[in-house]
Each structure stands twice: as C-alpha cells, then as structure tokens.
Amino acid sequence: xxxxxxxxxxSNPSDKEEREAQSQLTKSDEIQRLVAQARSSFNSxxxxxxxxxxxxxxxTCVWDVTxxxxxxxxxxxxGEMGKAISDLKAASKLKSDNTQAFYKLSTIYxxxxxxxxxxxxxxxxxxxxxDHKQCYGHYKQVKKLNKQIQSAEExxxxxxxxxxxxxxxxxxxxxxxxxxxxHLAKERICHALAQGQxxxxxxxxxxxxxxxxxxxxxxxxxxxxxxxxxxxxxxxxKDYESAAQHSENDRQIKEGLERAQRLLKxxxxxxxxxxxxxxxxAQKKEIIKAYRKLAQQWHPDNFQDPEEKKKxxxxxxxxxxxxxxxxxxxxxxxxxxxxxxxxxxSQQGHRHHHFNxxxxxxxxxxxxxxxxxxxxxxxx
Length: 380
Hints:
Elements: H1 15-43, H2 47-60, H3 65-78, H4 81-94, H5 99-111, H6 115-128, H7 133-157, H8 161-174, H9 179-195, H10 199-212, H11 217-229, H12 233-246, H13 251-267, H14 272-276, H15 284-297, H16 306-327, H17 329-336, H18 344-347
Helix pairs in contact: 1-2, 2-3, 3-4, 4-5, 5-6, 5-7, 6-7, 7-8, 8-9, 9-10, 9-11, 10-11, 11-12, 11-13, 12-13, 15-16, 16-17
C-alpha cells in the first residue's frame, strides 16, 4: 500500500519506537479507510462528503497525487474552480508527466473565460506529450480564440472600431458555448460601437450586457457615452451615477458625469447643432452648407413687416453664431463639453463676443464669402 511506504522496518525497536510504529499503523489504517469512504462517496456523487474525507487524507499524506486529483474533481463538480485549480497545480508538480492535470487546468481556465492561462497550461501538456490527442485538439481551439481576441483589441487600439466589432463577432462564432467569451465579446462590441459613434447600436448591445451584469462599470460608462451622442443626457447621467456607486475614484466617470450634466443644462438653453439642423458628428463642410442655406432663408432683407424683421434678425444672429462656434475647433470643443463660448456667464469673465452686440454688428460681414455684405440677394 502507498500509505505504508513512509514506515521503515527496524529490528529490536525500543518500547517508544514500537508505540510510535503502532500509532502510525493505526493512522495508516484510518487513512486507507477514509480513502475507501471518499471513493465510495465520490462514486455516489456525494462530492461534498468525499472532499471532506479527502481533506483528512491529504493533511497526512501531502504528497499523494491520487487523493489531490480526486479532490480536484470533487471541487469541479461542486463548482469551486479556484480550489480545483489549486489541487491540480499541486498534482502537476508532484507527478512529473501529469498531462491530464495540465489538460484539466487548461479546460477550467477556458470555461472561466481566461484564454491566456488556458493557452499556457495546454502548452505545458504538449511539452510533455506533443501527440496528446485531447491537449492538441484543445490547443488549436484556444490558440484560434486567443488570436482573435488579441487582434480585436489591437483594432480597438488603432481606433478601427468597425473591424473590431467584426472580429469580436467572429469570437462568438468560434466559441458560442462558453458564456464568459460571449459576454466579453458583447462588452467590447459595446465599447467599440460607442467609440465609433454608432450610438443607437451601442445602446442596444450595452443594454443586453447590463441585463446579466448590471454593475459592469465599463459597460455603464460606454452606454452613458452613447446616450450623450444621442443627446439623451438624463439617461447618460443615470448611467454615470450608477457607475460611480461601484467605482468611486474613477476620474473618467466623474468627468463624464459633469459633462453630461453641463450638456443637459446646455440643451435646455441654446443648441448650435439644432439651430443649424446638423448632427453633433457633422463635418465642417456640412455645417457651412447648412449655415448658408439658413442664412439665405432668414436674411432680414427678406422680411418687410417690422416684427417679422426683428424676429429674422435674432434668428440670423443665432445662425451666424452657430456657424462661428461649430467651425472653430477650439470653440466647438468647448461647446461639446457643455460650455457656451458665446455666453458671457459661461465664459466666467472671458471676453464678450461681438455677436452679443446685436444685428448691426454684421455690417460688412458676408456669410457667403469675403468682402462687404449689403444684405441684398439675387436668386435665380
């Protein structure tokens, strides 16, 4: 029996040595009984009892690989993967050619969503036996998945967000059965869509992730950003506040929340994008085109009634201000962060812009080109 190997026979033992030997033999009998009981419990699928019985065995026989492997299997069946990993790591060291321990470690890490650790362990198996059928098949799967995930993350770093989305969709096809990888893929798709300004799709994917993981701070931040893009500022504020509850010292959350609050306040006042009827993502060319069309429509010379002319003058000034802010990178950035460059209160003592002086400040200003502007149009 393996448990008797620790005892060494000696002729003419002393009384003390004899008592010690008898004690060890009794303990050996007890260990063998516990091993038999543990195996019986294991076969009956009473994994909790089997693990408890094996605890006692391993306390005495710390080098016994068989008991550790059986206890690891108990832990796997009980869903206690951390304890299973600990026993299997010990077993892989205690037995020099333990390919099965490395294979089990790799599959556990894989099912936990840790593709990198899974790849490391299965490589150890193949070092011992390059032709190991289970390990080689598993290695090909893990290597493919690992490569796809790394590639997707590189695409995100390169700001190639649409390509990153496609790559993470491929991840879900490569491994549709492990929830951790599907969850990771959707979380990163949510991020890529939000960063790529596909706000509506981002909100949909992020919301799906949050159904199963409502405290996911990264997804809450990404959905909040998407809500900002959709000008749903109150929803963005809710997400940032929820994220802050789970990550109090995150500066990105603090800055995002403050920005969303400023934009909400701003949206209740003057919105230069709405004045010109363009999206927040509009390019300079689109902004100038919209401006010229509206400036032509609302030019005061088009109105004869004094009240209508007064209204048109105000509208015309708003249109010109919107164009100035949105075509100036510095002013547009300020506005996008919730600060109105044309509002003296918002500027907190900064210079007052000439647009606040009224319609007459436009004398000599031509919104359609250079040179003096006398407010006369000839339409073909």
